[in-house]
User: What shape does this take?
Amino acid sequence: MKKAIALLVVLLMAASLVFAGGRQQSSEGVTRGMGRKIVMGYSQIGAESEWRTACTNSVKAAAEDWNIDLRFSDAQQMQQNQLQAIRAFIQQKVDVIAFTPVVSTGWEAILQECKDAGIPTICVDRTIDGPNTLYNTYIGSDIKEEGRKAARWLIEYMNKIGRGSKNPVNVVELQGTVGSAAATDRQAGIMEILAKYPNYKVIKTQTGNFTRAEGKQVMEAFLKSDGNIIDVLFAHNDDMAIGAIQAIEEYGRKPGEDIIIVSFDAVKGAFDAMIAGKLNASIECNPLLGPQIMDAAVKILTNQPVEKWIPSEEGQYDQSNAAAAYPTRQY
Ligand code: GZL
Assistant: This one.
């Protein structure tokens, strides 16, 4: 009797597989929340930082998890490569295109081509100039607010250690990629707050392109011209801050003590530096956007409402909370 029941169960399971939709509907054939497997084209900037790598890993893992066929392109920091990749996605008639714009300008034409082809688009991580009608949704953080957070933290910290009333407080800035929303908006947020404290003077600002190597090189140049008077460094990401820390130590000053350093991202390397007392604070910018991207793609393709901006969640870390938070960090 038991054997007969077991056989019946097996036969019923086999029948359900064969007759669902006329072909075998096994798990590899269907995207979560859809009646079929969808194809996503993703144009990523490159692999310039720990943050970018974490973002890419999150996108690929989420595509796997949602069972989405991901066509991934690495633009190696060149907008031209992004435009070519997106045109290829259009030719391939993908269901949805996600992209992280390396710079804020030059997107109107290509996004109109996506619209004309009836392909929805998701702007990820960095915003673009122009109306938000150019794309279906933006998933990422309020980058200008990150800049304000960084400057507010600095003012409070300098006052706490008794250096806030020094006149002038000499500030240098390592900018991210010129023309990127990440660099433009972080700088705008920082300067909006510093403008209220006229004794804070930005004596040097230059791009380090979000990389450790260039952050070190540019900081070496800052130190060569102003090494003995620099009080504060703002770095638009942790990778440049870590490069700058090496330059400061080689120069003979103490990072995190002689020169107060505030950066952005809150990647593992920043926590190591904060715990070592060489970085003072890192304002988090969450790269784990993969699940939000896939969820938005399915919602768009099933005609569900999607907000024009899906904000990412982020905090801020300094030497008072870095060690406690370290075990929980995912990137
Ligand atoms: C910020 C992101 C920036 C990171 C950098 O949203 O675009 O690009 O801060 C990354 O680490 O290279």
About this structure: The first strand starts at residue 39 and ends at 44. The chain has eleven helices and twelve strands.
